[in-house]
Amino acid sequence: MAPPQSISIIGAGIGGLTLARCLLKRNIPIVLYENMPSGTRHSYAITLLQSSYQPLLDVPEIDESAFKRRVAVDGTMGGNGAINAKLLVQQSASSSNSFRAHRGKLEELLREGLDVRWEHTLERVETIDSHVVLYFQNGQNGQKVQSDCVIGLDGIHSNTRK
């Protein structure tokens, strides 16, 4: 069997972090590149449906109640992010298994143990032989990185896709 390819993921949001954790769990080496500075970037709540968060429980190998306590908007106060459907305008928009998660805490949990390179703004991508070369604007000095595979999860204005 061939050794795992090095994979570069552009974008360290929820999508990039989730993919990186899944690949890492399968012992596939990855590096995430993010153009934003390190630290919690998002301090707002998102609603997670059970169908979207259930597969995530296997990635950090955490049980559902611990996961909810860790990322729920009210988790630091012993809550589990439960949504009171009676307070919603559209009560059918929430199921009993939905909960409110703090996006920054979710990203923090997913980021644990990953190699995230902060403040790396992708300028261009070139294919040379069988490799991809990524050119980053990194502070005052540019940086060139060679990778076997590049996955762009850097949003709607993706430099990877351009």
How would you describe this structure to a colleague?
The chain is elongated. By secondary structure, the protein is α/β, with parallel strands linked by helices. It is built from four helices and nine strands; from the N terminus they run βαββααβαβββββ. Helix content is 20%, strand content 28%. It starts with 6 loop residues before the first strand and ends in a 10-residue tail after the last strand. The chain has two domains: 7-38 and 118-152, FAD/NAD(P)-binding domain (3-Layer(bba) Sandwich); 45-103, no CATH class. The strands form three sheets. It has a four-stranded parallel sheet with strand order 5-2-1-9, covered by helices on one side. A three-stranded antiparallel sheet has the order 6-7-8, with no helix packed on it. The protein has a two-stranded antiparallel sheet with strand order 3-4. The longest helix has 12 residues, at 14-25. Keywords: FAD, Flavoprotein, Monooxygenase, Oxidoreductase.
